[in-house]
Structure formats: structure tokens, C-alpha cells
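User: Could you check the structure of this?
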Amino acid sequence: AQAVRGAQTQGVGDGTPFGSPVRNQRAARRLLARQPQLDRSTTDVLPDTPLAERRAGGDHPVAVAAGQALGDLLVRATRTTLSAIRIVGPHGYVVATSRGAQGRYLGTWPEVERGLGGEATSFLRRRHTSHVAPSLRSVSRGTPVRVFVGHPVVVRGQVWGVVVLSRTPLDVIKALYLNRHELVGGLVVLLLVVGLVAFLTSRLIARPLRDLRAQAERVASGDRAAVARIPHAGTREVAALSEALAAMATSLQGRAAYLEAFAQNVSHAFKTPLTTIRGTVELLQDHVQDMNAAQRARFLDNLAAEAARLDRLVRRLMVLARADVLDPAHERADVGEVVRSVEVRAAARGEVVTHVQADLPPVMASPETLDALVDNLVDNALKHGDAPVRVTAEARGETVAITVHDSGPGVDAEVADKLFAPFVTTAGSTGGTGLGLAIVRALAQAHGGDVRTRPADRGACFEVTLPVAR
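Assistant: Sure, the predicted C-alpha cells are below.
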């Protein structure tokens, strides 16, 4: 455009404007910003360019003068951009070129025809090459297509020509080769980053996980010193996992100690009646002929009593075991009905007086579980205390409290807390199993409640609390 204005200033030609007028001036200005429009996967590839025609005549003098002023500039531009540049005047003749065909007619090319109409164009054309195996520096010579771009020259709203550029596009190999230094630098940075990430991963994750695995193996082997968290956890997640593992180890060790003590108590509890049964059977085998009817009946009664004691032990151990795996979330029990049912069954063993608060909400337990819990407390009160036994039930906020109070000698404060441990009994000589209160506590805690002794002026008082059903 500047070359055209310069030629006009110098008085070349008659000053008559040539070319098609550009209707949208804003569109003409936007032609300066070109976005990529070609895609090998979707763009049609046109045939190779037709040969430039030799025609008589020539182009407008202003365009010819402008082209002469740009000749050297185009040659220098080609050395930098590697693009073939042709400037076609308003009549379709080449007025300036970097590759030849000066003065020839290109008006039949779509790039020129549409460019003289004020339209910028981009095309892909087939390219025939004689370079079968080009060198790495000239690898683009093997590309089968060439890009052609046509750009109109607009001066004061008139199209005075078209700039046609063509070149072979860069392929992947050539692009990598031209940017090899940047790629090597990026590769070095990438390797450094990967090395840093590997170091941090080993330091913060891999090594703590190895320590964690070693800790787990020590816990599995029974090492009691492995319950502490690992010293270098690395991340918060691994630290939390180590703490959870240490807590689990502590819980497992406590559970193992409990099971060991429980097994010893079970063995001791079964040992006494089994010894009695074995001795009685041996005595009967050796002297049954020498005994009178009353002696044989007494020994048989002893066998029956010990068998009944073993039966009570087995049944209560089963209840105690089930208490650890109960899921009371969806269970409901009417406290009034259960308390009155226990009262009726216990009437043959002693006087039981009950008082249940009106409109008492249901508790989170099954009727069978609540019956076993209350019945054990009442049975314990009748065995170790005196009648009457008073049973009361009342609501306390989100819980229901059931109190069983006998009229016996009471409970010594020194042994009050030990009564809820399995196999702890003050009536072992009369057949007590030491499991009644242990079952009560296990059932209460399994349902989100608890049981405790309460001070009383006379007798023993036990209070169990259970949460109200939702």
C-alpha cells in the first residue's frame, strides 16, 4: 500500500484508481490479523498451481512502479521466511516476485481472483517434488503439499493488487529439528523435575510406607513395642494411617489380653463343676453297690446340680458373646411391657414391686435383649439380697433409666466396680456363675447405654440407662 501511494505521489499513471472497491472498511482492516484456517485432516487439497501465462499487455503503471520498488525487499524477505512471494497487480499480472514469473499473468488463480475482490484466502495445493530422501535440514522438501495465501492490497478503499505467498509447511520432524535446542533444555528441566518428584516421593511416601509395613509386620508377630506411630511419617495422611494402625494394635492387644483372661476364667468356671461330676461318677462306679438309696439319690442330685450349673454357664456365655455383635440401630422395645413380664415370672422367687413412668418412650433394643437385661438384674437381686425388690423405670432426657433396688445387706464399696467383670461372684459356693452382671453391662454398652451401682441406705441398687429409640 505504501508503494502504491509512493507511485501515485510521483505522478505515475493518470491517477485513476483500479481494482474493486471494498465495501466494508472494518473488514479490510481486520485482514491484517490472520488466524490459521488450514487443517490437513479436513481441508481439501487442490491440484498444483497452473503455469503462469504469457499474455500481451501489462498491468497498471502505478502497480508496476510499486512492484519495482519492492523487488529487492521481496528477495530479502524470502531468505528469512523461505516463502515464495508474488505481488499481482489489479489486472492480474505479476508486478513483483521473489522467485521468477515477472510480468506473467496469474489472473486465473483462485488466490488472485478472489483477492482482487477484496477477500483473503488460504489454500492447500499438491506439491510435486524430485527430492525423494531430503536431508534433515531440508526435510520439508519431502512434504507433499504447499500452502498458498492470498492477501488483497487495499489503498483508500480500493483493491490495487494481491500478495500471493506460498511455502511448504513444517512437518513434525522439521519442527523438532528447528527447536532442538529448546527441546533439549526442556528435557533437562523435565528430568530435573522428575528427579525431584522421585526424591520427594521416596522421602515423603515410599520410605514412610516401608516403615508402616514393617510396623504392621511387627504388630502381626505380636511385638508389643510396635504400637507407637512411626517417627517420620512424611505426610499427614501417612501419619494418620500410622496412628490408626497404632490404635488398632493397641485395641488388638487389649482384646487379646481380654480373651486370654476370659479363656482362663471360662476354664476355671468349667473346671469346678467338671471336677465334681468326675469325682461323683468315679465314686458311684466304685461304691454304688455299697450305697443305700438315700446316698445314691444325694450323689445323683449333685450330678444334676453341676450339670445345671454348666448349662447356665453355656447359655450366659452365648448371651455375652452375642452382645459384642449386636446392631440395635433399628430395634425398639416397650420398657413397661418388659418390666411387667419380668415381674410376673419372678413372683415365684420373691416379691417384686414395679413402677413405670406413664408414656415412657421405647428404648433402642429388642424386647428379648431388654428382657434378658432386666431379668438378670432382678435375678441377681433375689439371689444376693432380700425381698422386696423394687424396679422403677423413668425417662431422663434422651435416655431411659431402669433401677433395680433390693433390701439385702448391700454391696461393699471396695468390690462395687469389680462386680461387672466376667466370673466375679460372691456366691460361687451356691452356684453363682459370675456372669449375670457382666451380661448386663455388655448388653447395655452394646446398645449405647451403661450400668452402674448407686448408693443406697439399705440394700444394693443397680441402675441401667439405655438411649431412646429414634
